[in-house]
């Protein structure tokens, strides 16, 4: 398994590849887990994201990422600006930041300063991002103001 620093660098590289001028953004790793309970079994779906932002701005770029065989693969980026932002919730019952677009896309983002390697066995990618986390909290406050 790759180190926390290597995984974080791979997430940043995937973002930079998917987003024009991606290197100019501060990036943070976010995740979400959705569970559905059925009578016979329970289904769990995990979503991983690289979220880019510029401190002092209210623009977010959300890039779904997937880890396959040690490689981080970027999905299609979604840019959320003041012009296309829909509903926003600073914190839901699970501590996730919720943001949507007027087009109907919704994201529930759990951003934490450090994801321990033990959590990677469940669903999250292990990264340390204390500085990025603090910068994201400031941008989140601007968006929710």
Give a verbal description of the structure.
The chain has three helices and eight strands. By secondary structure, it is α+β, with helices and mostly antiparallel strands. The longest helix is centred in the first third of the chain and has 15 residues. The mean pLDDT is 88.
Any idea what the shape is? globular
Please report the distance between the alpha carbons of the first and last residues: 40 Å
The secondary-structure element order is HEEEEEEEEHH
Give the uncertain stretches in residue-range form.
Answer: none
The largest β sheet comes out as: 5 strands, antiparallel
The chain-level structural class is alpha+beta
The strand count comes to 8
The helix count comes to 3
Radius of gyration: 15 Å
Mean pLDDT: 88
What share of residues are in beta strands?
35-45%
Helix content: 10-25%
Tell me the layout of helices and strands:
Elements: H1 4-18, E1 26-37, E2 42-53, E3 60-68, E4 71-74, E5 78-80, E6 85-89, E7 97-101, E8 106-109, H2 117-120, H3 130-144
Antiparallel strand pairs: 1-2, 2-3, 3-4, 3-5, 6-7, 7-8
Features:
8 strands, 145 residues, globular, three-stranded antiparallel β-sheet, 23% helix, 37% strand, alpha+beta, five-stranded antiparallel β-sheet
């Amino acid at each position: 398994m790759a180190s926390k620093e290597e995984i974080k660098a791979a997430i940043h590289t995937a973002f930079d590849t998917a987003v024009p001028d991606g290197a100019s953004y501060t990036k943070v790793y976010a995740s979400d887990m959705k569970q559905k309970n059925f009578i016979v079994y329970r289904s769990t779906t995990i979503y991983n994201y690289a979220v880019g932002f510029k401190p002092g701005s209210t623009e977010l770029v959300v890039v779904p990422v997937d880890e396959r065989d040690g490689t981080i693969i970027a999905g299609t980026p979604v840019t959320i600006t003041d012009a296309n932002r829909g509903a926003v919730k600073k914190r839901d019952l699970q501590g996730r930041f919720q943001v949507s677009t007027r087009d109907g896309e919704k994201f529930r983002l759990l951003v934490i300063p450090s994801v321990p390697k033990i959590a990677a066995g469940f669903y999250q990618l292990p990264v340390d991002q204390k500085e990025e986390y603090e910068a994201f909290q400031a941008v989140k406050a601007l968006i929710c103001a």
